[in-house]
Amino acid sequence: MTLRCAKLLIAALVIACGALAGPAMAALAGMPAPTRIASGVYAFIGTGDAVAPENHGIVANNGFIVGKSGVTVIDTGPSYRYGRAMIEAIRKVTPLPVTLVIITHQAPEFVFGAAAFRDRNVPILAHVRAAQLIRDRCSICLANLRKTLGEDEMAGSRVTVPDRTIDGTTEIENGGRKLQLLHFGPASTPGDLAVLDTETGVLFAGSLVSNGRIPELRNEQIPGWLAALESVRALDLNTVVPAFGPPLRGDAILQTGLYLRELDASVKQACKRGMSLTQAMHAVQLPAFSGYKLYTTAQPQNVQRIYLQLEKQ
């Protein structure tokens, strides 16, 4: 074989490999750099906006914890492409392998990167109820994300059911790091987990806490959610990484609870006044939270959800 032929063959192989890799192998625009929260603890901070093509669905927070022998990932983002980008970003921080993924809850912005880790035989853990919801409902969420973000953005994404489950608060050790997986009962979802790194006091709160963004009510139990927030407040924490928005300290986590209380009370008052559902969706406003992201879309939807629940009582 001549040198020219060899070069042409190599070039053809490179092109072929790129074609086989497909769009899921391409770099991900808008991927946030990991933010160091504490020693060995990093978070990817999303935009906090609604999922849209311009943000590639990178709206939620997730992160990883580096131990002596391995890495624990907490939540995996909205797509296979995002999961791959996480893996590459983690490699730039540490050569240690990812040895466990923990899913805090089943919302689509947090789960569809899991396939990238499954393809590397990394165990994926969640609460048993979250795993059930991923199995039963996430195919619909995936279809919706494909419509919103497009087939190219979601290439390779698939429903990935966790292969390890727990049914209550559990302490584990992974990669030489002790972690508390906290379940406070049905709260923002039936299977919420919060992940506490005991060494640094950093808590990944999952959907229990949002910062500067209206929480979207889907599978919630508001009394349980409020009780869970009080339990989180009682912990000896250094930093809380919420589902959305910048990390929090101290009593700042209570803003989520304050919103839920005011929302619940305002909808109940609207019902007592005899407002129809449509009237309540327009009339129930919470000015203190009107500057939060998603207020104009999530607020009336949240009013609708609570109103319909009250009608069933």
Written description of the protein model:
With 313 residues, the protein is an alpha/beta fold. The protein has one domain (19-254): 4-Layer Sandwich (Metallo-beta-lactamase, Chain A), CATH 3.60.15.10. The chain is built from 9 helices and 12 strands. The protein has helices at 3-21, 80-93, 108-111, 114-118, 128-149, 222-233, 254-272, 277-283, 295-312; strands at residues 35-38, 41-44, 62-66, 71-74, 98-102, 124-127, 164-166, 170-174, 177-182, 194-197, 202-204, 239-241. Strands 1-2-3-4-5-6-7 form a 7-stranded mixed sheet. Strands 8-9-10-11-12 form a 5-stranded mixed sheet, with no helix packed on it. It is globular and about 60 Å long. The model is unreliable at 1-26 (pLDDT under 50).
Q: How far from one another are the termini?
A: 81 Å
Number of DSSP helices?
Answer: 9
Please state the second-level CATH architecture. Answer: 4-Layer Sandwich
Low-confidence stretches: 1-26
Mean pLDDT: 92
Please give the CATH class.
Alpha Beta
Order of helices and strands: HEEEEHEHHEHEEEEEHEHHH
Strand order of the largest sheet: 1-2-3-4-5-6-7
Helix share of residues? 25-40%
Instruction: Tell the overall outline.
Output: globular
Beta-strand content estimate: 15-25%
Main sheet?
7 strands, mixed
Tell me the number of strands.
12
Based on CA atoms alone, the radius of gyration comes out at 21 Å
The CATH superfamily bears the name Ribonuclease Z/Hydroxyacylglutathione hydrolase-like
- Number of domain modules: 1
Overall structural class, as computed from helix and strand content, comes to: alpha/beta
